[in-house]
Every structure is written in structure tokens, then in C-alpha cells.
Amino acid sequence: MRPLRDVVGDLIWQVQPGSVTTYGDLARALGDIVAARAVAAITMDELDPEDFPTHRVVRKDGTLGNHPLGESEKSRRLTVEGISIQDGRVEGMPDMRQMFFESDLPLKKLRKLQAALGDHLNLGPLGTRPRTLVGVDVAYSRDGYAFASAIGVDARTHAITETRFHRSEVTFPYIPTYLAFREMPAIESVLEGMALEGALLMVDGQGILHPRGFGIACHVGVSLGIPTIGVAKRLLTGSYDRAALRREGLAAVRVEGEHRGWVIAPGGEKRKAAFVSPGHMVSVDDSLRLAKGSMGKRQPRPLELAHSAATSARRAWDPHSTMSS
What is the pLDDT of residue 1? Predict the structure, then answer.
């Protein structure tokens, strides 16, 4: 698939002088409105305003939004093209707005790929106890690099058995529910050559607790053919009994009545909750048992180690970076 940066650039060139479009309109042309924030980041940070007419992209309420050269320059360029700007807003926005584009809807294609991979999903139960638990996490620098870390620990003693690290360029933006397409290249690279026989992989992200039932832990597990669980810091879909969480420190998470995972919060503290669900080749109950058996402060210890290693590598590369995994 072509980089989304290039696709967004091509879409923006379809907006003629005297017209404007919105970040949401471009996201729909990519195939999913949830990409609106990613579109805004691309137009601000990745497309040269001297090569692309990014000034023609505004907010849905007609306000101008950010521009690499500043709002006043964005306003000037629109005015030159015949757009009237009053109090920082496009006048007659409905008449000026271009909402439809020629596009092959790349995000729709990625959803179809997720659905095809989902046909191979195996929700266990896990047949044998894993010998090794492998945590994998990815951190990002401001200059477009992904720092992936994989830490293997003995499933019984929790002693570290193997450590891997990989740095690579980021080719896909962060878009909610499409995390696998951003992180899979880095994860596959860091796991290459690692001893994964008899291992269970713990991924910082969703398993089946995902709006399409196929989060990054599922994607990694099916693609690599290994047992995985997802452990995320926030919930994308589903609900749980908050009273049970406060009382017992864990609760079942259900999506439309189906039990898909668990929320674990030591001491019942919601702000420190972890959301655990199967990725591949494990059951819902397996995911809870495996996560609880190696729990650290908030996530399983292998994931906390991987997160720390990836973050340290990113900071060593870019000491002023504040971006996280």
C-alpha cells in the first residue's frame, strides 16, 4: 500500500482554487472518519506547504486550523484564491466545501485485510503452559522512528532470558483501531530470530477487545502463528461492572453481552487499570490467568520491561522527545 502521506497529498491536489475541504472529508476519502486527526498531523507536519495546497484544508466549522506557515499566511492564500475569510472563518462554508474525491479508500482495504486474517483467529484454550513470556512494545521519536523492544522472561522464575531491540522508520500514522499497520513492521523485525517456540507473546494493545474484534495482538498472533494476549491501558469497546472492579480488583469486559476480556486494577484503582484479552491461540480465561500470573505495577512484568527498554532507547536517540508508545 502507498504511504498514507502520499495519498493525502494526492487528495488535497483534487481541491481546486476557490474551494476548501475538511480534515474529516479527507479522512472519509481515505476510508474512515477516525483518521481525521492523522490527516491533520500529515498536513501540518509532513506535507510541504510550497508543494501541496494544504491551506485549502480547514476545520468542519470553517475555522482555519493550523498551518506550517501560520494562520495569517493560510488566510492570505485562501483570500488570493477568492475565499472570503471573516474573523478567522471561511464565509459561506457549505458552498465552498468539497466533500467528494476520487479515491480507492485504502483504509477500507485494510479493514478487509483484518477481516480476512480474522477468519484464522483461534481463541484457544492454550494447550500447554508456555515456557517463556515475551513482552513487546514500541516507542516513537519525533523524527519518525519506531523503537521496538522484545524481552523474554522465564514463565516460572520471571528471570530475563532474552532481550532484542530494533529501530526502524515509521511509515504509517497513528489511527485508532489501525495500530497493527503502524507497529507490525517494527514488531516483526524485533522478533526475527528470537526463540519463540513454547513462548507466549504479550502485546501492548488490544486483542479481541477491539471494535472489529481484531486488535494488534490478534494481528501479530495470526500473522506469526504464535499464542498472544493483548494488554491495553484504555478500553476501545465494551463495558464492565465498576463496583466489581473496586471490590475485587478485576471485572469481566463484555461487548454486546459477549465476554471478551478483563479489566484488572490492583486495589481497584480505575486510573491504573489494564484491559486484557486474547490475541490468538488462547482463551478469555487463559488471558486473565497469564496476565495475573506475571502482573507488575499495571501491566505484566514482561511488558513493563519492554516498555522501559523501548522508551530508554528512544530517549537515547532523542533526549528531548516526549512521545510515548
Answer: 78
